[in-house]
Amino acid sequence: MVKIVTDSTSDITRDLALSLGITVVPLTVFFGKQSFLDRVELSTDEFYKRLVGEIFPTTTQPSPGVFAEVYNQLAEETDEIAVVVISGKLSGTYQSALSATSMIKKKGVKVEVIDSRSTAMGLGLMAINAARKAKAGARLEEVASSIRTNIPKAHPFMYFETLKYLAKGGRIGKAEGLVGSLLSIKPVVTLDDGEVSPVARVRSKKAGLDHLYNFAAQYAGNIEGLAVEHATTPDDADALVERLAEIYPRDKIVRSTVSPVLGTYMGPSVVGVFVLEGDKTT
């Protein structure tokens, strides 16, 4: 069976990864000289307690050696591995995952490494979909083709209280023009070809959450996967899930929290909706 590998910015929960057989490779968060493996040695809650301190965190991608270790372990169970990771415009993870393919010891192992051009549950939904196809018996070529087909169908939409963390971390992308907005303006952003891009400016959290709902609602009847995640405001995520249950089965909506690595750039209070379109034309 094809084995699926992704990275910790996919925000796939540990339980979901275990149930689907997805291997999640952690990135690393640094607070000064202290390093923590994303979601392994540092939870979102612990991360945000540290974020209010004087030391601003930094992050780094897994080394090729880390990916090679994963590939070599999986090669004991399979000869087909599909790897889908965070946008190459946001992280060097893709290059590490690709470089590691030359470090596989076993002959005949095929590895497809794919830049999702997304992150968070945009990436997560692609990995989940790929894992389900693999469990259904699809071979590597079919799984990899499906992931590539899903790249333009994965739509992230996020409400931020502030963009200062994106700006400070150097991941502001096309949303740079919003940084100087009045403090009363809250940005709503998406990812455009792998980098942050502005969608709207709203004056309240309620208006921002309305944007998230309306964004998802436009795909009603043509949703392959739907996810909601938050950083520090679970009540906002709960309320959004209740609204989205009008257009998609509540029990199929994937719930997650923003990983510490992504929290470095998103900051507190971010809420996101992520849609994976179905095959119909919208």
In short:
With 282 residues, the chain is of the alpha/beta class. The protein has ten helices and 13 strands.
Report what the structure shows.
This protein has ten helices and 13 strands. It has 282 residues and is α/β, with parallel strands linked by helices. The chain has two domains: 3-151, Rossmann fold (3-Layer(aba) Sandwich), CATH 3.40.50; 153-277, Hypothetical Protein Tm841, Chain: A,domain 3, CATH 3.30.1180. The strands form three sheets. A six-stranded mixed β-sheet has the order 10-9-8-13-11-12, with helices on both faces. Helix 3 (64-74) packs across helix 4 (93-99), helix 5 runs antiparallel to helix 6 and helix 8 (205-217) runs parallel beside helix 9. The protein is globular.
Protein traits:
26% strand, four-stranded parallel beta sheet, alpha/beta, single chain, Rossmann fold, six-stranded mixed beta sheet, 282 residues, Hypothetical Protein Tm841, Chain: A,domain 3, 2 domains
